Amino acid sequence: LDSIDVELYKRLVLPGVLEQIVSCRDAVAQEYLMECIIQVFPDECHLETLNTFLKACAELHSEVRVHTVLIALVERLAAYGQRQRQAGNPPIPDVVALQISLINLAFRCYPDQLELVNKVLESSLEALHRLKSDKIDSNSILGKELIRLLKMPVCNYNDVLMLLKLPHFASLMAKLDFNGRKTMAILVATNALENETCIRSQSQVDDILGLISALTVDQEDQPIGGGPDAEEIAEEQNMVARLIHLFQSEENDPDQQYRILTSARKHLGSGGIRRLPHTIPPLIFEGFQLANRYYKIREEDEMWEKKCEKIFIYCHQCISALVKLELAELPVRLFLQAALAVSHVTFANSETMAYEFVSQAFTLYEEEIADSKAQYSALTLFAGTLEKLNNFSQENSTPLRSKCALLASALLRKPDQCRALILVTHMFWSSTTKELEGKPMRDGKKVSECLRKAVKVASECIDFGVQAQLLIELINCYSFYFDQGNEFVKITHINELIAKVKQELLPQLEAGDEKDSVERHATATIERLRFKRDNPQTDSPSYQDLII
């Protein structure tokens, strides 16, 4: 035995002996031989091979008193720990390794007894208190052993809520350096996501976000410079964002959900510009869902209107936090999304609140968005939002639609102006107001004015290819409103545009991919109109006067 080291024992000796014991199928012999292994070989060997030994116990004859074998093993390991303490202060990594063996034993034999696991964690914490260093290097032997120890409850329970019942788990995790805590935080978050563990109460949210704080806020001991790149940060924060959607109270307790969201914002609000664009939007959309929950139970809760208003104020505060970070495009999108969410939950001040969201978006657009592509993208959102909002009075909707049309005509690039003016026509045709009681506005005159402006802007483009493309798009738009019965859109408008494209623009285009693309688009458009002229429908306007 003196010539056998731990590695040799682990690799050859124990597997061979256990194979013989398991295959003999004699209960008395098996029990005796297992106890011999426990008593004969050194403690260090048992610590390194505990998993192998326990797996063999599960394969023994059914009449073997396995508990007797396990008691003998525990007593042997306990005696080892006692001797180590009496001999002075043993190496801390050895102590943690012993705790790993004990916690593994607890999980395999007594999975339901949390107090045993917590006792092991407590013993480990007491051992670590002897260290002079505040933080343990995660790359050191001790750090790696501690991470192994902490991973075991996470991976064995597969329920992060069980970790909250282990009061010493968080304290042990706090002993690690930044990289170690971050590793554990990622493991905890990933485990919750993979097992879809819902966090049901405010206190649970506080504890979980406390465990993963290395992901959500800057840490005092995190490296300065040379940290993770933007892609890695985005991946980590997207994980946190997904986790937020697991913060769900019981269906019959929406008040608890509001407390959960408020608490989550307090934890995440200090995340800074690298984190908040990822973690704030989920809170806002969960707020929208909560407002819908209150709306559904409005007959049961007389305070539902005030609660909905409070929720949208919360959402406004969340979006404003992004504005303070000097972001613009994301807050604009969220302000408009909030306005749409309010329109689906009609309460006393819903119109005022929706108007505030839209006006804030316009203000942010004018003050912060300078890039022409970003402006055009934002205007498509404004037009789409104002078309779908249904809780505005005529008094409030008119200035907002007019503002959107004005901004469309003020875009820097002529093609963007033209296309934006085409988009805003839908606000004046399909949108509705309170006075209309859900019926579409059908402001044909305003639609016609926007289209005439768009034609004028398109005609000012110097590039014949771009001008032709825009006019073809306008032909299709005029055709749409003609089919819709807009009395201010005449077949003569379509004829004029077709003539200009065919006679003035297409002949001037140089041969190439651009000309081929424009001609294909023009041909498809004209053929569609020709079909309408040649196949009149009784319920559609006549294209009889169309000139192709």
UniProtKB/TrEMBL annotation:
Coiled coil: none annotated. The keyword Transcription does not apply. GO terms for cellular component: cytosol; Golgi membrane; late endosome; retromer, cargo-selective complex. It is a peripheral membrane protein. Gene3D superfamilies: Vacuolar protein sorting-associated protein 35, helical subcomplex Vps35-C. It is found in: Cytoplasm; Golgi apparatus membrane; Membrane. It comes from the Eukaryota. It comes from Lynceus sp. MCZ IZ 141354. Keywords: Cytoplasm, Golgi apparatus, Membrane, Protein transport, Transport. GO terms for biological process: intracellular protein transport; retrograde transport, endosome to Golgi. InterPro entries: Vps35 (IPR005378), Vps35_C (IPR042491). It holds the Pfam family Vps35. Signal peptide: none annotated. This is EOG090X00QE. Belongs to the VPS35 family.
